[in-house]
Amino acid sequence: MCGIVGYVGSKDAYPILLGGLSVLEYRGYDSAGIALVNGKGLEIHKDKGKVDHLRSITHDVAGRGCTTGIAHTRWATHGAPSKHNAHPHTDQHDRIALVHNGIIENYSLLKEKMLKEGIKFRSETDTEVLAQLIGKYYEKDLAAAVRRALLEVDGTFGIAVIAHDRPGVLIGARRGSPLVVGVAEGELFLASDASAVVAHTKDVIYLKDNNLIELTPEGFDTTTLDNKKISPEIHTIEWSVDALAKGGFDHFMLKEIFEQPETIYNAMRGRLLVSEGVARLDGLNLVLPELRGIRRLVLVACGTSWHAALVGEYMIEEIAGIPVEVEYASEFRYRNPIIEPDTLIFVISQSGETADTLAALREASYKGATVLGICNVVGSSIARETHGGVYLHAGPEIGVASTKAFTSQLTVLALLTLLLGRMRRISNSDGIAVAKALEAIPKQVRKILRQNDTIREIAKIYAKHNNFLYLGRSYNFPVALEGALKLKEISYVHAEGYPAAEMKHGPIALIDQDMPSVVLAIKDSIYDKVISNIQEVKARGGSVIAVATEGDREIEKHARHVIYIPKIIPMLSPLLSVIPLQLLAYHIAAQRGCEIDQPRNLAKSVTVE
Ligand code: M6R
User: Fold this and answer.
1) Is 466:564 a contact under the CB 8 Å cutoff?
2) Is the CB of 279 under 6 A from ligand 1?
3) Same domain for 190 and 176
4) Would the pLDDT of 479 be above 90?
5) How many angstroms separate the alpha carbon of residue 402 from the centre of ligand 1?
6) Index of the ligand 1 atom closest to the CA of residue 301
7) 18-36 tens-digit pLDDT
8) How far is the CA of 351 from the centre of ligand 1 (A)?
């Protein structure tokens, strides 16, 4: 997703804006740019390429004392990555400059109209249309011009706007694309993500949809797009700027893998009541009576969050006895899902901004459903629009490949399972057993992480292979999907995840000595079946890397390599079995020299359809 940074205050805006862009690099982008009000007018610098490149072509701008500016990292949607398509965009007379996240859906109609009016365009982007429109309406009042232009556009936007003759004025507005305002004494910051402002202030406003904010060094003025005054709430960011540093690790992904003992603990802290064998999820308090009466649950998500939802389905059906369906948000939003009064919807999203998940949430709400959220990013659109929910408290996840958010999602789903299970059909003693097992997870994850060097050696052996099969059954089938996704997204190696028994219905045809299989062979009720599946792979010359339970010596006869995880109840085994797969994907990608934290073509949060 593109990144926005804006500043107004008394300091030199340039290093603040460039620093903010560097923090947002993790979200994925292809070009970068900056606009400053420099006393004579607008000064724009932009190009295709990285923030470092922008820095190298603008180093003489530092120290000039421009105190108002905006900056952007673009992830191309309309128009190829290029200098002229990069943001900021201006109107034809360079009177206003705009950076924009989102999509202006009616841009071609608006553009056609403006072309007829003689307006000259310089890019192929939808964003320039909005810049031209604001420029057309701009006289003396920048906020009024932005408001008027936004009334004409359809689509989504998070924008920051400055004008050539308005030093000390910065306008932000949003619909469907996040904007955060950092509030400090005598200066204000605007960003698409709190991580870009946390180095300067922890006091933030999460701008709401259809709101516009005018920032000056003296303060802010917030209105709706139809100009009704509002008083936004100021929140405090709970994590520190250290979360944005690699902390001695080579990559954010590795750091986040190693953070999991703490992040899993944070997800259950204050929520797991071991001695009572229950969970307490305060964010769901309002719907507790509804939870007791529900007859069906639908879990909606994308990508890794969808894999977490699949594990949730296995957990909730087995322990709480409630039928669960798991839906891809992108499918759910466009079909006509059946939502009955006793159906409860959970949307799961790390970022809380995924466009399809947000749209699914809105569709379900429109149909009258109670929609609850499981999100990581505080104040995100999904967190705000749901009727209640649970935060992961995992801190910012910077690596594009989701790791710690996944295990935190599993933790929250396990807590939810415990809550629902105890309301319905599991006894106090069974509840205590699950709670105790959950409590032990952080320590067990730490133990698995100690095998990092062994897993790196295994990765070296397999790094040159171009095809992998990931197999698992029951609770570990979704883990197979997740392991395959991790490998393909960061190492560009083809990997398929399958329920182990499905292999013989097709994928078995692919197996030979060049296609290794990663098999989740955890000691559970279907362990023997998984061993049979391993035999089938071996019989076709395929190598097997097994993830198995400590103490299982039998597996060593069947698999070429074994990575052990501690003994755990089946329901919670994904929390452990996924860790070796994250490390394996990481080390294979590292061996192949891939750009692990910012894989090609991927964005950290997918805010477009
Ligand atoms: O922020 P979300 O959890 O809604 O994101 C969903 C997917 O885009 C995300 O999980 C994606 O698949 C990751 N790149 C996986 O590592």
Assistant:
1) no
2) no
3) yes
4) yes
5) 6
6) 4
7) 999 999 988 778 899 999 9
8) 8
Report the pLDDT value the prediction gives residue 402, as an integer from 0 to 100. Answer: 97
State what percent of residues in the chain have pLDDT above 70: 100
CA of 405 to the centre of ligand 1 (A): 9
For residue 288, the surrounding DSSP H or E stretch is helix 288-293
- Tens digits of per-residue pLDDT, 497-520? 999 989 889 888 888 889 999 999
Q: What is the Å distance from ligand 1's center to 104 Cα?
A: 24
Q: How many domains are contained in the chain?
A: 3
**Residues spanned by the domain of 548:** 447-609
Q: Say yes or no: CB of residue 37 within 6 Å of ligand 1.
A: no
The atom number, within ligand 1, closest to the CA of 402 reads 16
Counting from 1 in the atom list of ligand 1, the atom nearest the Cα of 354 is 4
State residue 1's pLDDT score.
67
CATH number of the CATH domain containing 45 = 3.60.20.10
Residues 331 and 389 both lie in one domain: yes
Considering 404, 486, 488, 604, which one is annotated as catalytic? 604
Tell me the HSE value of 72 on the side-chain side, using a 13 A CA sphere: 33
Would you report the helix, strand and coil content of the chain in percent, each value rounded to 5? 40, 25, 35
How many beta carbons lie within 10 A of that of residue 129, not counting itself?
28
Cβ(231)–Cβ(222) under 8 Å? yes
Same domain assignment for residues 219 and 333: no
Distance from C-alpha of 125 to C-alpha of 32, rounded to nearest angstrom: 15
**Is the beta carbon of 402 within 6 A of some atom in ligand 1?**
yes
Q: Could you tell me if the CB of 489 is within 6 A of ligand 1?
A: yes
Answer yes or no: do 200 and 278 share one domain.
no
Identify whether the C-beta of residue 340 lies closer than 8 Å to the C-beta of residue 325. Answer: no
Residue that finishes a domain, picked among 189, 212, 242: 242
What are the residue ranges of helices labelled H in 496-572? 527-539
The CATH number of whichever domain residue 378 belongs to comes to: 3.40.50.10490
Residue 486 bears catalytic tag = no
By the 8 A CB rule, do 101 and 112 touch?
Answer: no
Give the span between the Cα atoms of 237 and 234, in whole angstroms: 10
Distance 148 CA to ligand 1 centre (A): 35
Nearest CA to ligand 1 atom 9: 303
State which of 354, 402, 481 you would mutate to test the pocket of ligand 1, scoring each by most atoms of that ligand within 8 A of its C-beta: 402
Q: Please choose, from the candidates 13, 10, 11, the residue with its C-alpha nearest in 3D space to the C-alpha of residue 37.
A: 13
> Do 309 and 216 share a structural domain?
no
Does 315 have pLDDT greater than 70? Answer: yes
Question: Does the pLDDT of residue 461 top 80, yes or no?
Answer: yes
Looking from the CA of residue 377, the nearest atom of ligand 1 is: 1
Among 221, 242, 263, give the residue marking a domain's end: 242
Q: Is 476 in the pocket of ligand 1 (CB under 6 A)?
A: no
Longest dimension (CA), the chain: 79
Query: Is 420 found in the same domain as 458?
Result: no
427 and 517 housed in the same domain: no
Assess whether 11 carries a catalytic annotation.
no
Q: For 543-580, how does the pLDDT look when each residue is reduced to its tens digit (9 = 90+)? A: 999 999 999 999 999 999 999 999 999 999 999 999 99
Distances (CA, A) of 577 to 5, 11, 418, 444, 485: 39, 49, 20, 11, 15
Statement to judge: residues 187 and 289 lie in one domain: no
